[in-house]
Amino acid sequence: xxxxxxxxxxxxxxxxxxxxxxxxxxxxxxxxxxxxxxxxxxxxxxxxxxxxxxxxxxxxxxxxxxxxxxxxxxxxxxxxxxxxxxxxxxxxxxxxxxxxxxxxxxxxxxxxxxxxxxxxxxxxxxxxxxxxxxxxxxxxxxxxxxxxxxxxxxxxxxxxxxxxxxxxxxxxxxxxxxxxxxxxxxxxxxxxxxxxxxxxxxxxxxxxxxxxxxxxxxxxxxxxxxxxxxxxxxxxxxxxxxxxxxxxxxxxxxxxxxxxxxxxxxxxxxxxxxxxxxxxxxxxxxxxxxxxxxxxxxxxxxxxxxxxxxxxxxxxxxxxxxxxxxxxxxxxxxxxxxxxxxxxxxxxxxxxxxxxxxxxxxxxxxxxxxxxxxxxxxxxxxxxxxxxxxxxxxxxxxxxxxxxxxxxxxxxxxxxxxxxxxxxxxxxxxxxxxxxxxxxxxxxxxxxxxxxxxxxxxxxxxxxxxxxxxxxxxxxxxxxxxxxxxxxxxxxx
Amino acid sequence: xxxxxxxxxxxxxxxxxxxxxxxxxxxxxxxxxxxxxxxxxxxxxxxxxxxxxxxxxxxxxxxxxxxxxxxxxxxxxxxxxxxxxxxxxxxxxxxxxxxxxxxxxxxxxxxxxxxxxxxxxxxxxxxxxxxxxxxxxxxxxxxxxxxxxxxxxxxxxxxxxxxxxxxxxxxxxxxxxxxxxxxxxxxxxxxxxxxxxxxxxxxxxxxxxxxxxxxxxxxxxxxxxxxxxxxxxxxxxxxxxxxxxxxxxxxxxxxxxxxxxxxxxxxxxxxxxxxxxxxxxxxxxxxxxxxxxxxxxxxxxxxxxxxxxxxxxxxxxxxxxxxxxxxxxxxxxxxxxxxxxxxxxxxxxxxxxxxxxxxxxxxxxxxxxxxxxxxxxxxxxxxxxxxxxxxxxxxxxxxxxxxxxxxxxxxxxxxxxxxxxxxxxxxxxxxxxxxxxxxxxxxxxxxxxxx
Lengths: 493, 451
Prior knowledge:
Order of helices and strands of chain A: HHHHHHEEEHHHHHHHHHHHHH
Structural class of chain B: alpha+beta
Number of helices of chain B: 17
Strand order of the largest sheet of chain B: 4-3-2-6-14-15
Structural class of chain A: mainly alpha
Largest sheet of chain B: 6 strands, mixed
Shape of chain B: globular
Number of strands of chain A: 3
Largest sheet of chain A: 3 strands, antiparallel
Helix content of chain B: 25-40%
Mean pLDDT of chain A: 81
Oligomer: heterodimer
Strand content of chain B: 15-25%
CATH architecture of the domain at 189-337 and 354-450 in chain B: 3-Layer(aba) Sandwich
Low-confidence stretches of chain B: none
CATH topology of the domain at 189-337 and 354-450 in chain B: Beta-lactamase
Number of strands of chain B: 19
Strand content of chain A: under 5%
Strand order of the largest sheet of chain A: 1-2-3
CATH superfamily of the domain at 189-337 and 354-450 in chain B: DD-peptidase/beta-lactamase superfamily
Distance between the termini of chain A: 42 Å
Helix content of chain A: over 70%
Number of helices of chain A: 19
Radius of gyration of chain A: 24 Å
Largest interface: A-B, 34 and 28 residues
């Protein structure tokens, strides 16, 4: 009987998340703000339904009363996130908030299933980091000088990486971080936060100047980041930084030659890494034929594929599979664990939700006029989606394993904090854009008024302080025509 | 750009789940399967005619027993589940623990908290032929493999000494203390010197190196100098003037030593590689690779010994059956298989294996020629007991010395039944035969059972 309820709710959850993922994209096609609001509200309901179904299943399967208590705690957290964001920042992109909660929710369900105590830890960290992240949009909005601290970002990034290199402890072939507060303390992985600092560094540097000399300097510092990460054998993070830099460089310069050169250098470097590092070689061999290399590094990927294969399209149902046999199931292997118990369709929908976040980030980036903010939004977005790609691609044998985690879903304090902050920054940028838009709107009205009363452009300048940071200051007219008009339709909250 | 990357990845995941995931789920490394046993009654294993080779019975207390109605007869190929899993029980573990019963029925059983019945595995094995081979081997140690060369279906696979999988738990310690290797499937994992059956391979290599092989002629004086040794023909016979066909028919050692000393070792190696020596064999069950150890540095004695199937060469009966299959099937080896189909317990087919070409081991012309030579073996040569059978046959006998005990040899036979349109090939080895039990007689009983 219990099994039937679990199986039924499994199918229901698949239906619900499919509807949710569908809304994630169909919302881009509608302009009517009321309609959008309804769709977003529907998403919230869907999320809470999935959440309750999952916990009912888990409670029935385990008969553990803690499940219900923990469920209530989680519901309050998600409700608080949704409410607080909407109340404090009415201008925030609600699609991004919804997606963040949905991904956190999937993560909490799976973590509770896999390891209750990790889930509790994750819950505490999530609560803390969401609280912090609520301040981030304010900071972004108030601190106009964020773009001036290039050197600080460079130094902060490199120093924290170097510290890891020196003090770091070796985990899984890579020096990822160090522990604070003994064995049960929190393990800090600076490379997670460094990703954000790095994006700020590149953005501020390119905002400063796009001359060849400056590009060379920036590239050198970026390469140094990558190098330290490679030396500390955190190849996943190195790869992410590398790709993020390439994308930002391209968007800033519009120069395909740089991309070609970058990809060439990257290809060359990976060949060298393959020959230089044994653990890189092991992973490539394991990727090619994991079953054959089962005892020589293929074990992890084989276990992932067992889980994914056993789950099939619809999954085994919560507590019906054996995700505890998946190595590092809570972090690197969470996609396999989700696929096994909740089904591949569910997992694919989760990928779509991640993609929806990315599309939204791109959307925000494209509409920002300030080069610095634009690059930050783009860099963080790339950072996010590429990490998702590396994790899921690695787990499904699409690409060799790199040992990164799915942001928000996987267990991992540093990753969770940095991702929530990352989302906060992008929300801040979104709000900035809204401000920007309002400023332009005001400007236009000023101009109309100015035309009527015969006043000059002076008034315009005074009333639009944001204007000063615009890179394309010379052509405000074109901007108004080309961009200001279609924007209301594109806006998605 | 990333969006398209993701679409490709999602496409790949869908592709993986549709096509590749089966290979992974079925891997014996996957521990998940055993968890399924809590909700599913392990399915049965059947022979090609539906005779039950293994089934699960539920005792009065609800405890499940795995029952093997044929006892020892299928012990190695079907395997057991009690102490780890072996044989088809291991290979098809996930199929047996998956239920493709009608979903409504599954639902009903779930409601009543009853177990669902797992799928059946229908094998290519034929219990009648297996029985004939099993009985023919008698109390000898050895193995028999019978394959349908046109399809690759494995019809019989016997290994002796054997054990009773019904009582394996009780006898476990005893079986493991036994140093005779009772648990080893000799058919696929046994390693034997091929003896004179290897002369077929040598003949093939000779045909490849010397296009005038049909004019080959050698005068057998009953013995030949091999370095410091002298090699005799079996039984001290003197065959006189022989061509290649006679050499094979009479299994003339001196003639093959003569051929072997002239062969180019690198080319010989290449030919044996093409015949799957030192390579993975296509096999559902665990196997041992065959070894062909001749190198450039080998002296004349080593070369001669290898050419006549002694020396360092090691093969499994299964591998010899595959080579014979290729000869019978115009040079092409069909992918050998043991599982014909998976059906739900009520008989609906879930999946079916179709015959599939594995590899061309030799040219059709070469295979035809070898088959002709092998016909002479049963016609007037060393296997003439098969000469007056009601069906046509071709084959090659072998006697492999294996130890200091000169009185006992491994007795080999590889053979083809119905030569023009081969129905069945067999490969038989009898360990330590004192001359009374001959592999060719076992083969004859298997063929007789088939017709």
